[in-house]
Amino acid sequence: MMARGINKVILIGNLGQDPEVKYMPSGNAVTNLTLATSDTWKDKQTGQPQERTEWHRVVFFNRLAEIAGEYLRKGSKVYIEGALRTRKWQDQSGQDRYTTEIVASEMQMLDSRGGEGGGGNQGGYAGNQDPMGYGQQPQQQASRPAPQQSRPQNQPAPQQQPAQPAPGFDDFDDDIPF
Amino acid sequence: MMARGINKVILIGNLGQDPEVKYMPSGNAVTNLTLATSDTWKDKQTGQPQERTEWHRVVFFNRLAEIAGEYLRKGSKVYIEGALRTRKWQDQSGQDRYTTEIVASEMQMLDSRGGEGGGGNQGGYAGNQDPMGYGQQPQQQASRPAPQQSRPQNQPAPQQQPAQPAPGFDDFDDDIPF
Amino acid sequence: MMARGINKVILIGNLGQDPEVKYMPSGNAVTNLTLATSDTWKDKQTGQPQERTEWHRVVFFNRLAEIAGEYLRKGSKVYIEGALRTRKWQDQSGQDRYTTEIVASEMQMLDSRGGEGGGGNQGGYAGNQDPMGYGQQPQQQASRPAPQQSRPQNQPAPQQQPAQPAPGFDDFDDDIPF
Amino acid sequence: MMARGINKVILIGNLGQDPEVKYMPSGNAVTNLTLATSDTWKDKQTGQPQERTEWHRVVFFNRLAEIAGEYLRKGSKVYIEGALRTRKWQDQSGQDRYTTEIVASEMQMLDSRGGEGGGGNQGGYAGNQDPMGYGQQPQQQASRPAPQQSRPQNQPAPQQQPAQPAPGFDDFDDDIPF
DNA sequence: TTTT
DNA sequence: TTTT
């Protein structure tokens, strides 16, 4: 993918609910979640502390969707990097409506509360190259065993998800954003 | 302002229209604009190039609103840093609707096409301290003249803007996001 | 502060040691710490997992320096936003040398392991305005008490720090970066 | 590549010189350049405007190195995203020294001053998938022709670059950072 | 020197 | 509605 311009979002927050994993007819995973960030400030007049929680709608695709679905839970603190995308959809009365989401391209768990042994950072692509140029340096003879597979084994069969429209595109929004 | 979590957006794009500057009853400026970023990719099946433009709704407050209103124009390329905020509002039928915007905290013009002599980077706050600690070093005797005031002089009087509701909160969305 | 260009660093990592807090003759705090981030990849030839840890030198000034010194400890996981700055200094043989640091402007603790009750996000400036424009909305009558002061009370008197040169500028580097 | 932690740099600045392109024995390109960002502020005492230019050393690998070498020139304004990496090397007296660089993973030209017709944004990897999930939507029938190849054709033969050590690792620093 |  |  190429781009004209930069469209980048960086979030650290906590999940409001367990993530929802769905599968495309193709078998590709799509995971949706909501993430809370909050701002606090003092009211200018009263000096009273104020707080506002912002809820972000985040969507993951493919491998990252599976990882998010497996390792994230309600309350999890997570770093997410992605891009803004506003989708157009029709409500039940046929009116055009818009929902803005963050399409995640990178994710990193920030708490290891679960006992999954999982977590870690999961980039959006499986680069087994050496983008930092470290391989140019004298080889460090790594002798430790290959890491445990952190990618979910149980890739659900698409047919378990009956021929529903692609989640996040057709049926996702019943009425309001979340 | 303090925060729990990180809510950060970084955009580089072009303005779809001239910015709209409004003034609060307090006299504070609020500027709204839409910014285009685009992605291009090749269709997996056909190999045909695809393009999708993302339109971002950006809002500026106070000093930054005035600067944006003065120096940005339709087509301007700009760097914007800010935070996501989703506002709830009611459409004409009384239904709840939501609009997601980027509340800009920093802006930097990336083309100097206009003859304004303006541009430059405009942080969201007027820090006249020395956040980088440069002042600790031996003073460089700056002998060049004080920079031209880049802040618009003509702060419009609030009364010129009749008692309208706060823009971007009440009257901003007539119907659809943009 | 204004800028031509963007100079932004975003780090999430763990402290290698407790932070070092020093005080300027003016009484302003300066805190230095090192932060680890790491990359892992597989060797192209052997398929062996490789790991490389990057050590970042971070410096905080003023209020943020005090907060960092109070709440961060060896091993703490932290989000840091800042800017790159390369300082020139002379080693004992009089040779010019350079050290690149991140001057932190924002910090957020990501683990609450300590019992300090502290943490939270600490922006680099004490904005008690309303940069997100929330104050425009109907006032939420916050009735909870004012938050505990998270800023250290015990501002050390400068004279407790004998007339030493500014840390991080003169005496900081004895020989090598860290 | 996976990561524990986040190590991200975002720069917008101007090149101090034309980029230097070298080739690894493998034929892979490595491009080095220096990028200027600047801060301006007012001296607290004198009120005099101060300015400090920060010079960033940026390194590109592989495809991005070729693009940078072809399209960027002294004075070019560019957006760069990457990661910090501090390299250790020995000066002529055998002393350990360190240089911090930004390893670029994404680049976007911000001026189209050259007549190359090139530029555009060049991500660090050639994703021809559909990371934003747009392909799920009804196909927009793109009828415009395939874009001009923006990747340099003239991949220089490695043998033109005699068996020199990897640039940026051995021979890059003659003495001081830049 | 951290972390998993 | 922008831009290349």
UniProtKB/TrEMBL annotation, chains A, B, C, D:
One Gene Ontology term from the biological process aspect of the record: DNA repair
Region described as Disordered: 111-178
Domain of life: Bacteria
Gene3D superfamilies: Nucleic acid-binding proteins
Motif (Important for interaction with partner proteins): 173-178
Keywords (A to Z) from UniProt: DNA damage, DNA recombination, DNA repair, DNA replication, DNA-binding
Composition bias, Gly residues: 115-126
Record's signal peptide: none
One Pfam family from the record: SSB
GO cellular component: nucleoid
GO function terms (MF aspect): single-stranded DNA binding
Segments of skewed composition (Low complexity): 136-169
Role played: Plays an important role in DNA replication, recombination and repair. Binds to ssDNA and to an array of partner proteins to recruit them to their sites of action during DNA metabolism.
Complex formation: Homotetramer.
PANTHER family, sorted: SINGLE-STRANDED DNA-BINDING PROTEIN
Protein name listed in UniProt: Single-stranded DNA-binding protein
Organism expressing this protein natively: Nitrincola iocasae
Lineage of origin: Bacteria, Pseudomonadati, Pseudomonadota, Gammaproteobacteria, Oceanospirillales
Gene: ssb
